Amino acid sequence: AEDTHFVERREPRRRLDEWWASRSNLAVVSGLEGRGKSWVALEWALGLAMSSETMVLALSARDVADEDPELVVAKAMGAATGRHAGDLGRRIRRWASGGCDVLLVIDGLNEHWTLDWQEFLARFQVEPWRDSIRVLATARQQFWYSAFKPVPDEFEAVEIKVGDYDKLEFEDWLAAAASKVRRQDLSQSLTALMKVPRMAALALKVAT
User: Fold this and answer.
1) How far apart are CA 43 and CA 182, in angstroms?
2) Contact call for residues 115 and 148 (beta carbons, < 8 A)
3) Sign (positive or negative) of CA dihedral 100, 84, 112, 115
């Protein structure tokens, strides 16, 4: 979109890099509405796909059914390749046993609130999936807290919070928007609104 200006979210990216290096099975990017959770997760996952041999698959949480990991991944792979999911299940198990890295991105857990996500995601934390298929999910913060807190000891999950733009990110956004508005000319309330990624472009129009 014309008014969309992407800004690198340095701290969430750093946390995602740390998570991936740790070999932990599950990370959840959480935050309030409009903070850019999906963008952070998908932009990072795209970078991973381009810089490594990791197979990256993405699904909307609304398209996830209460199924075994093999079928969920097969459907995601089928959607990406045009292959029938039923033809891919056995191949996925071979990849899992052969040590192939797969990242499954599930966007918007809160948009499918009827699914027991804690029970569903726990299926990826046992063999043969634990070391081969890792999951990166996004969720609104309140949903994550209500659905997953307290996290059971046996449930491995890393939470990566995404908030408003910090000072440097906000300056980056103003520069990317080619704005002639100077930060010092903005009111405190308008600045606070512009630091919310989804509201930034609208707030800039108000300012100008």
Assistant:
1) 28
2) no
3) negative
The pLDDT assigned to 1 comes to 46
Rounded Cα–Cα distance for residues 85 and 73 (Å): 9
Q: Which residues pair with 102 in a beta bridge?
A: 55, 133
Higher pLDDT pick, 81 / 86: 81
* pLDDT score recorded for residue 76: 87
Helix (H, G, I), strand (E, B) or coil at 28: strand
pLDDT digits (tens, 9 = 90+) for 103-137: 999 999 999 999 999 999 999 998 888 888 899 99
Residue partners of 124: CB distance under 8 A and separation at least 6: 25, 26, 69, 104, 130, 133, 134, 135
Contacts of 96 (CB under 8 A, 6+ apart): 102, 128, 129, 132, 133
Q: Phi, psi at residue 65, to the nearest 5°?
A: -105, 165
